[in-house]
Write a structure and sequence with these properties.
3 domains, Rossmann fold, 9-stranded mixed beta sheet
């Protein structure tokens, strides 16, 4: 047996690049993407991706170098997911909504050699180019603009001799990095998270399996592609010879228009996307079921009930940048369909759930004893991961890697309980737990109660300093109905919460969010310092 070794005939490195080679060979004329009045076949996507790889190489970018992209949900972003790694470089997708300081930090920290950017960000890029010397490539959409010292994307691609790039590129080692994604940096500078070809390849199969996707899905981009490489869906949809519908307009009316026009079958988005669809006044029941995958905070039972009545089926997932996006899914069981109470079904669906197939181990541990907590749905511990869809590690950050991978597990920093059926349910981030008079208070528990009020659109709870108790809960509420008062909220909370869990301060305001819809609690904590009611 020991004489049976890997060889070129029986082993090759796993990579999502292989999906495009296969699909373009089998379905060359099938539409790969649609964007407004533009569209492209799989044959065209492959050619342009290879041209991009050739253009990158012509700019003296070597294997393992970083190529940054700052693009919205446009077709060139799909091309970058293939063309950049085809050149042997590592794709660094920048959050397009970051401020200049963070963009500058990421470009310097990653030592990016090239920045491919959209024309909408020219003002920011002109300012950055004075401080950071690298090669800038502009993707033009509609404007006829020319800037000295900035290369033009399509012109570069057209200059490439296709005869020199015909051969398909495969990494020699599947552990090679395919992409670099930066965390949101809520507690300091963002950390650079490296993905490998193997993990990205396996994540695509995970997406297909857990979402029960068939061939030729029509996928609408209501999730930013820069977020965890769009949860690996740019590669997943190509594997299934599907069509990707690109859009940068995120409102309920436009989403429904694109769904109906293109016969969309799948889309992803934070709960705020679900709310946008519901708020669309022309929302009617859809004849064919449409699948929505949502992450971030769990959607409220009210939102779940309302959107599923309209013909959407919601799948709730959970993960981190460090796990290629979602790694845990609330796997729906057919016997739950027989539960008559819609609120009970919604509560089941709001749980985070069980592990993705390629996440070998998922558990909730007591961090002091390093043993799993009781499966009673009450005992809180930290969520630990282990498996092929956990990141390689943080770029140039030994201390962060040491802490994240302590004792052979990936420590998520999220606190949860685990139920007797093995489904986990998040209770808080470890840093978001409120310790009041020695008692631990889950901010998520309070948020779940407040959001049940039909006058509430959304809610976030943080701890604020208190002379007597150390910390007490403070609720920030986005109102759906302007008549909602603080007294109403307090009376509502008293029905469902113990006295020490009731918010001691209530503030009505729009909630600050990340580009992917997550509420920025650190901004709320900063707000409270200067707040005077």
């Amino acid at each position: 047996m020991s004489s049976l070794l890997k060889n070129k005939a029986n082993f090759s490195a796993l990579t999502p690049l292989s999906f495009l080679y296969r699909t373009a060979e089998i379905f060359p004329k099938r539409l790969a993407w649609i964007y407004e009045k533009r569209k492209a076949t799989y044959q065209e996507l492959l050619i342009r991706s290879k041209r991009l790889a050739g253009a990158i190489k012509s700019l003296n970018v070597n294997k393992g170098d970083i190529v940054a992209v700052m693009l919205p949900n446009v077709p060139e972003m799909i091309e970058a997911h293939f063309g950049v790694p085809m050149s042997g470089a590592i794709l660094n997708s920048l959050n397009t909504r970051l401020e200049k300081r963070s963009i500058e930090y990421i470009l310097k920290h990653s030592k990016s050699k090239i920045l491919i950017f959209h024309e909408d960000y020219i003002g920011l890029i002109k300012s950055l180019s004075k401080r950071i010397k690298l090669k800038y490539i502009i993707v033009k959409d509609k404007k006829e603009i020319n800037y000295r010292g900035i290369l033009e994307y399509d012109s570069l691609l057209n200059q490439v001799n296709f005869e020199k790039i015909k051969e398909n590129y495969f990494p020699k080692d599947e552990w090679e990095s395919i992409s670099l994604n930066y965390t949101s940096g809520t507690t300091g500078n963002p950390k650079g998270v490296l993905y490998h070809h193997r993990g990205a390849h396996l994540m695509c199969f995970n997406n297909q399996m857990v979402w029960k996707m068939g061939y030729h899905p029509i996928y609408l981009w209501t999730l930013p592609m820069f977020h965890c490489n769009g949860r690996c869906f740019p590669w997943t949809i190509v594997a299934l010879a599907g069509t990707q519908i690109c859009t940068n307009k995120f409102d309920g009316k436009e989403i429904m228009k694109l769904i109906n026009k293109n016969k969309v079958t799948h889309l992803c988005g934070a709960p705020i996307i679900l709310q946008m669809i519901i708020d669309n006044k022309k929302l009617k029941k859809i004849e064919k079921k449409i699948n929505i995958m949502t992450a971030a905070s769990p959607p409220s039972p009210n939102v779940l009930e309302e959107i599923e009545k309209s013909g959407f089926f919601v799948t709730h997932v959970y993960g981190l940048t460090e796990s290629y996006g979602p790694a845990v899914i609330c796997e729906w069981k057919t016997e739950w369909d027989r539960i008559k109470s819609s609120s009970k079904r919604a509560n089941l669906k709001a749980r985070q759930g069980v592990n993705y197939p390629s996440l070998d181990f998922l558990d909730v541990f007591n961090v002091k004893s390093m043993k799993p907590v009781k499966r009673d749905g009450k005992t809180i511990g930290e969520v630990f991961f282990k498996g092929n869809i956990v990141m390689k590690g943080y770029l140039n950050d030994k201390e962060a890697n040491k802490s994240a991978f302590k004792n052979g597990w990936f420590h998520t920093g999220d606190l949860a309980v685990i139920h007797n059926d093995g489904y986990i349910e998040l209770k808080d981030r470890s840093k978001d737990i409120i310790i009041s008079g020695g008692e631990n208070i889950s901010s998520i528990e309070i948020e779940k109660i407040i959001i049940k009020n039909f006058k509430v659109r959304d809610c976030a709870v943080v701890g604020i300093k208190d002379q007597k108790w150390g910390e007490v809960p403070c609720a920030f509420i986005e109102r759906k109905n302007k008549t909602l008062t603080k007294d109403e909220i307090l009376k509502f909370c008293k029905k469902y919460l113990a006295g020490f869990k009731i918010p001691k301060k209530i503030i009505f305001k729009d909630l600050p969010r990340t580009s992917t819809g997550k509420i920025q609690k650190f901004n709320l904590r900063n707000f409270i310092i200067d707040y005077d009611d």
